Amino acid sequence: MRKNYRSAFFSQEPFVQEIRAWNESYEKETGRKRRFFCFTMGCQMNAHDSEKIVGMLTEMGYEPTTSEEEADFVIYNTCCIRENAEQKVYGKLGWLSHLKRRNPYLIIALCGCMVQQDSVLEKLKKSYAYVDLVFGTHNLYRLPALLETYLNTGEPVWDIWQESKEIVEDMPSTRGRAFQASVNIMYGCNNFCTYCIVPYVRGRERSRSMADILEEVRRLAEDGVKEILFLGQNVNSYGKTLTPPVPFATLLREAAKIDGIERIRFMTSHPKDLSDELIAAMAETKKVCHYLHLPIQSGSSRILKAMNRRYTKQQYLDLVDRLRAAIPDIFLSTDIIVGFPGETEEDFEETLDVVRRVGYATAFTFLYSKRTGTPAAVMENQVDEETAHQRFDRLLAELNPRIHDLHESLVGQVLDVLVEEESRQGQGMVSGRTEQNTLVHFAAGPESIGQIVPVRLTQNKTFYFIGERI
Ligand code: 5AD
Ligand code: SF4
Q1: Inter-residue contact 81 to 116 (CB < 8 Å)
Q2: How far does residue 233's CA lie from ligand 2's centre (Å)?
Q3: Which ligand is nearest to the CA of 190?
Q4: Neighbours of 347 (CB within 10 A)
Q5: First-to-last CA distance in the chain?
Q6: Is the pLDDT of residue 4 over 50?
């Protein structure tokens, strides 16, 4: 691990050492390492936080296991964007209480977005008091200190901060794949879309300095990473709060100069902040993938206003036109919420209209979920469940044939595929993604994993392709 005195993580070093020594003596006595199980819910940001959690646990001498039953330390990195994510955590915690009864040495930790909410903490205190460690999104880096306190006192340690004091650089992190890496470029969100809990649990926007980001990308490239994914709740407003401000387009252009990096992706883009400068950078910078996740949420300008999205249907469609004019082969994906309060049949028809006009390659569709504390939760005219479900099904019926049609244009083409893993389609198959993020399964050996290889796309299966390696 690189040490850096600017880094708040440096403060964790003594705790890391102490716990590592404790784990090493256990290994000497028992012949096995202590094991952790980390379960991650939610978005890419959370997945990346888990890479840091795994990195810290590994530094502290734990090894991973794939089941809670075998673990000495169980951690759930939670999400609260929709209610069902929270219900799942409560269910899993209930089950863990049985394991804890069997093994009182089991340590149970809970972190992530869900525990940033006071109502959740109250519920946990009342009904799930056997959770040993609870920490939020702002103090993840203090896991070693919190664990050390718990080990020395045997008392539960619950530490939730309302805001981040600083951006913590140089945390250890364990990537799932050697050749791909996520890189945080900013944290938090200032947009306050009226349905969304994220600004309340992830705090205000904070950008990392471009120098720190590029340094991380350089190190990743030296370590064999070919594809990076820049992460932020709203990457298009990256750098606005830095002195001097740095446009996101500049960051992309600078990152593309780093040898070894072959593909650059980013998410999520808010349509209101997507500048022509960024479109130009995407068009001109070869390494930046021709794929963009551009959440529309609703096609109705009236609902978009109630959502506080700050663009209209027409402005979104104009933006899509500008993107396609500059980058003709760009593939777009989106997020759509069905059943936002007050959504009428006419409003929903507007959403279908956008789907017909844009031709998305992928769409993440959600039933509106009421989040306590957000403005939309107290809006009148909440849409009844049955109507929302019906609209949801109609939306999919509109989306899927169009996704199929868009992909027809790729049949017969030879495209570069970054091979990601062995395919579940069958023995001797691998799967990977094109620059436009299209999933392709084709016959090749595991030695091709991590390589970028030319593949002819032969069969369009709507959400993926079967291909042949050239
Ligand atoms: N209900 C349903 N979907 C939501 N999203 C965010 N908040 C809610 C909610 N309360 C969706 C949005 C966002 C994606 C990450 O999750 O579409 O873009
Ligand atoms: Fe939530 Fe809107 Fe921020 Fe996205 S931009 S995280 S939807 S508030």
Answers
A1: no
A2: 7
A3: 2
A4: 20
A5: 40
A6: no
Contact between residue 307 and residue 193 where contact means Cβ atoms under 8 Å apart = yes
Q: 191 CB under 6 A from ligand 2?
A: yes
Nearest CA to ligand 1 atom 7: 196
- Is the full-model pTM beyond 0.90? yes
Instruction: Tell how strand 35-40 and strand 73-78 pair up.
Output: parallel
pLDDT digits (tens, 9 = 90+) for 173-213: 999 999 999 999 999 999 999 999 999 999 999 999 999 99
290-329 residue pLDDT tens: 999 999 999 999 999 999 999 999 999 999 999 999 999 9
User: Ligand 1, from 269, 334, 335, 336: best to mutate by most atoms within 8 Å of Cβ?
Assistant: 335
Q: Which of 337, 362, 382, 391 to mutate to test the pocket of ligand 1 (most atoms within 8 A of CB)?
A: 337
Beta bridge partners of 456: 414, 468
Query: What gap in Å lies between CA 263 and CA 434, rounded to an integer?
Result: 10
Angle in degrees, 0-180, between the axes of helices 248-256 and 276-284, rounded to the nearest 10: 10
Give Cβ neighbours of residue 23 (< 8 Å, ≥ 6 apart): 33, 34, 60, 61, 62
